[in-house]
Design goal:
Layout lengths: L3 H10 L4 E2 H8 L7 H13 L3 E5 L2 E4 L12 H13 L5 E5 L16 E5 L4 H10 L4 E3 L3 H7 L7 E5 L6 E4 L2 E4 L1 H10 L9 H13 L4 H10 L10
Helix pairs in contact: 7-8, 7-9
Length: 233
């Protein structure tokens, strides 16, 4: 008898998207299988990246799409160690601007270390990193970014971390998910250089290359007051 995993993958490969109910209606026909077994197996396939969750209750086979991973280099690890030791209970999201490169149509060099944390900790974190010898900018505006910041340099930008922002861990460091980055490039003033057609193109590239959790994307966009047109809407 064909295993539940193989049945789910066969069903998923036959259509662009499917719901749990559609999967169960098909898989239960003439088969002695418990629905909970199907649910557990589906969850395992999602966690392994073989099946991608498109939105609440809607799935698709991963196919040629990959899982996005933010870039962290030695500088980000060093910054994280400094901040973890100094502020063990503060939340942080840290990543390198090179994370944006796979999404860009017109490449622009970005070697910034982005450090996001609670608003209440922004100035303290800024001062700690400045005292450690780094060139640091505190939540720069669009105008400041354009006029004074060279994104090609190994500098640090400290800015607010939105509550419940979607992050994941790489080497124990919280980094942004693809959903977070796509929203941030349209909302953060220091990303204004990406606005307009370039930002929209980055969304399209993200859609084509990576598995995107639409529910997560919408929740975070709503928290940031962003309205957007999405191919899945």
């Amino acid at each position: 008898m064909t295993g539940v995993k193989e049945l789910i993958l066969d069903f998923a490969s036959s259509r662009k998207e499917f719901s749990v109910d559609e999967l169960w209606d098909w898989i239960s026909q003439g088969r002695d299988i418990v629905r909970n077994t199907v649910n557990i197996t589906l969850a395992r396939l999602v966690s392994k990246g073989e099946i991608a969750k498109v939105s609440r209750g809607i799935y698709t086979i991963s196919g040629s799409k990959t899982v996005f991973k933010a870039v962290i280099e030695e500088r980000e690890i060093q910054v994280y160690e400094i901040l973890r030791n100094k502020y063990p209970f503060a939340p942080f999201c840290i990543y390198n601007g090179k994370s944006l490169v796979p999404l860009q149509h017109h490449l622009s060099e970005n070697n910034v270390t982005y450090v996001e944390t609670d608003r209440s900790a922004l100035e303290a974190v800024f001062n700690t990193l400045k005292d450690a010898g780094y060139e640091v900018w505190l939540n720069p505006s669009e105008d400041i970014t354009y006029k004074y910041i060279d994104l090609r340099k190994p500098i640090i930008i400290v800015k607010p971390l939105v509550t419940e922002a979607p992050t994941e861990k790489i080497n124990d460091i919280n980094v942004p998910t693809i959903e977070k980055l796509l929203v941030d490039i349209k909302k953060d003033e220091d990303f204004a250089y990406l606005n307009g057609s370039e930002a929209q193109r980055m969304w399209e590239i993200g859609e084509s290359l990576y598995n995107i959790n639409l529910s997560r994307l919408k929740r975070y966009a709503k928290r940031r007051g962003l309205k957007f047109d999405c191919p899945h809407d």
